[in-house]
From TrEMBL:
Gene Ontology cellular-component annotations: plasma membrane
Keyword Plastid on entry: no
UniProt keyword Glycosyltransferase, yes or no: no
Name by which UniProt lists this protein: Trk system potassium uptake protein TrkA
SUPFAM superfamilies for the chain: NAD(P)-binding Rossmann-fold domains, TrkA C-terminal domain-like
GO molecular function, one term: potassium ion transmembrane transporter activity
């Protein structure tokens, strides 16, 4: 898979390193000469160019990319890169970094963003996830379909503790994707039972989140 990353700062280089370790082809693009540190990620391709310019993106051959990641520290730049990648080059998957949570509402399909990653929001969510039991925590927002990746740790008093996954009437537009039980990561099957303390990850429509939280946190009679 070919991935172009706009922004060769610490975030962009870190993402590039992970992708390269997983066998992907990576191009880092940045307009600042000081950001071009080939020795830090020598396996990647590097391009000194402004990712907001069509000529630069032509040079980067963005039409050959499977994924574009807008990872600069400027939300305006990330939005422009995302829009150009999607509308001018038809990139199938566009992931954008949100630096200021106040701008998160802009990072949606109309700007070409498939997945928006808000670092401040994610960090606060992880703090909430670490200390909350029975409360739904939103980890990641997907632009298409207004869906979110959410997590809830099943409390001991939950009415669903000990219930088979296949016997639960989940809300519409909701899918249980992973059960984290201690150090194990389980792909749920209908025969798996839910246990108190399970960390449950769902992809759910935002409109269903409250209903999902009520279902999972409902106490036994």
């Amino acid at each position: 898979m070919r991935v172009a990353i706009a922004g060769a700062g610490a975030v962009g280089r870190s993402i590039a390193g992970e992708l390269l370790e997983n066998g992907h082809e990576v191009l880092l693009v940045d307009k600042a000469p000081t950001a071009i540190s080939v020795e830090r990620v020598p396996q990647a391709e590097w391009l000194l160019a402004d990712a907001c310019e069509i000529t630069s993106l032509d040079e980067a051959a963005l039409q050959r990319c499977n994924v574009v990641i807008a990872a600069t520290g400027d939300d305006k730049v990330n939005l422009v890169v995302s829009l150009l990648a999607k509308t001018e080059y038809g990139v199938p998957r566009v992931v954008a970094r949100v630096n200021n949570p106040k701008n998160e509402w802009l990072f949606n399909e109309s700007w070409g963003v498939d997945v928006a990653v808000s670092t401040p929001r994610l960090m606060s969510a992880l703090v909430e996830e670490a200390v909350s039991v029975g409360d739904l925590v939103r980890l990641l927002r997907f632009s298409h379909g207004d869906a979110n990746l959410v997590e809830l740790t099943l409390p001991p008093e939950s009415a669903l503790a000990g219930t088979r996954v296949g016997d639960v009437q989940w809300p519409e537009d909701t899918s249980l994707v992973t059960i984290i039980r201690g150090t194990r990561v389980l792909t749920p099957t209908p025969d798996d039972s839910l246990e108190a303390g399970d960390e449950l990850l769902f992809v759910a429509a935002q409109a269903r989140e409250e209903q999902l939280e009520d279902l999972l946190s409902a106490r036994r009679d």
